[in-house]
Amino acid sequence: MATPLFIFTALRGSFKVKIENLELLSVSQIQEIQSFVQKRKGVFDFNTYTFIIQKRLEFNEFVKLIASTSLDARCKDNPVILQVKPRVGFGQYKGMQYAELPDSYLVWLQGNYSGPDREIIESELKSRKL
Questions:
Q1: Do residue 43 and residue 25 come from a single domain?
Q2: Is the pLDDT of residue 82 over 70?
Q3: Are residues 56 and 70 in the same domain?
Q4: Residue 90: its pLDDT value, please?
Q5: pTM of the entire structure?
Q6: What range defines the domain where residue 110 resides?
Q7: Most CB atoms closer than 10 Å: which of 19, 38, 40, 126?
Q8: What is the predicted pLDDT for the residue at 63?
Q9: Residues 93, 60 share a domain
Q10: Are 121 and 109 in contact (CB under 8 A)?
């Protein structure tokens, strides 16, 4: 019988766990994981092999939590480096991230904007292949 492999990712006010080898687990193991998630009012998503629980935990706290249950699982940390994405500081899209802007507006900015965010605009256009 396979041992579940949990890939832990801490989020701002919650944490997400991907079960790397879900397809190799027995039905009883999956039911045990579901029970663990439900007891903590979490959400189990079979499409992505993940569950999310709305509680802020660090990796070492998660490992202790798993050890205190009957779940026999291996845990790995997936540290996420939160990136601050630049936001528009002017006009009708003020406050939105450049990545959220419509293509047409980015193209318009390319021809009409000459301010300090010019490099961000060019980078976004390049990433969209526009």
A1: yes
A2: no
A3: yes
A4: 87
A5: 0.62
A6: 83-130
A7: 19
A8: 96
A9: no
A10: yes
Rounded Cα gap, residues 25 and 6, in angstroms: 12
**Cβ–Cβ < 8 Å for 113, 125:** no
Shared domain for 70 and 31, answered yes or no, is yes
Q: Is there a single domain that holds both residue 34 and residue 89? A: no
- C-beta separation of 44 from 33 below 8 A: yes
Tell me the C-alpha distance between 13 and 94, whole Å: 26
Q: Helix H segments across 2-127?
A: 27-39, 59-67, 103-112, 118-127
Q: Which residues contact 8 (CB under 8 A, 6 or more apart)?
A: 15, 16, 17, 59, 62, 75, 76, 77, 78
Number of domains in the chain: 2
Same domain, 12 and 70: yes
The answer to whether residues 71 and 24 belong to one domain is yes
Between CA 99 and CA 126 the distance in angstroms is 12
**From the CB of residue 53, how many other CB atoms can be counted at a distance below 10 Å?**
21
How buried is 51 (Cβ within 10 angstroms: 0-12 exposed, 13-18 middle, 19+ buried)? buried
Cα–Cα dist 62/119, whole Å: 41
